[in-house]
Design brief:
The chain has one helix and eight strands. It is mainly beta. It has one domain: Immunoglobulins (Immunoglobulin-like), CATH 2.60.40.10. The longest helix has 9 residues. The structure holds 2-acetamido-2-deoxy-beta-D-glucopyranose (2 copies). The site of one 2-acetamido-2-deoxy-beta-D-glucopyranose has 4 residues, from strand 6. It comes from Coniophora puteana (strain RWD-64-598). InterPro entries: Nis1. Keywords: Signal.
Length: 132
């Protein structure tokens, strides 16, 4: 995990992060194991300049909506780890072919360098999906 050492510093800076949204899928979407899912990631406009580093899209499964692991603690399945074309990109990921439990938390973590002094920054969004 190349990012793990940097993660602490990134969290400190997260208050300054450029917020992203998961525009698709909608929260609560029912998906099929193994299917391809389009994840639409939108970055909000900001006055401060920023340089993109990467985003990570992941899912973690759970038996009910209240027991899903926190995406800030663990990502069971990393589905995408790569560049992000701001301010708007569709990324197609393939869902794991099996997950324990009927629910999962889908998360997008966004890494960027913010401002003229390039403050390392991380922001995160997540939503719950259901497995059919
Ligand atoms: C992101 O989501 C927030 C809250 O739902 C909304 O207010 C905001 O307009 C959204 N921004 C973008 C760029 O989609
Ligand atoms: C992403 O997909 C949505 C829905 O299919 C589409 O409306 C949008 O134009 C696409 N955006 C990009 C940047 O490809």
């Amino acid at each position: 995990m190349q990012f793990s050492l940097a993660a602490l510093a990134l969290f400190v800076a997260s208050a300054m992060s450029q917020a992203i949204n998961i525009s698709s899928p909608p929260s609560g979407q029912t998906v099929l194991a193994g299917e391809k899912l389009n994840v639409e990631v939108t970055r909000q406009n900001s006055l401060s300049p920023s340089e993109e580093v990467a985003i990570v899209i992941g899912v973690s499964s759970c038996t009910d909506e209240n027991s899903c692991p926190s995406p800030s603690q663990v990502i069971q399945h990393v589905l995408y780890n790569g560049p992000y074309a701001a301010p708007h990109q569709n990324i197609t990921v393939t869902l794991p072919s099996s997950l324990n439990g009927g629910h999962a938390v889908l998360s997008v973590t966004h890494f960027s360098l913010v401002g003229v002094s390039c403050v390392p920054s991380a922001g995160r969004r997540h939503l719950l999906i259901s497995y059919d």
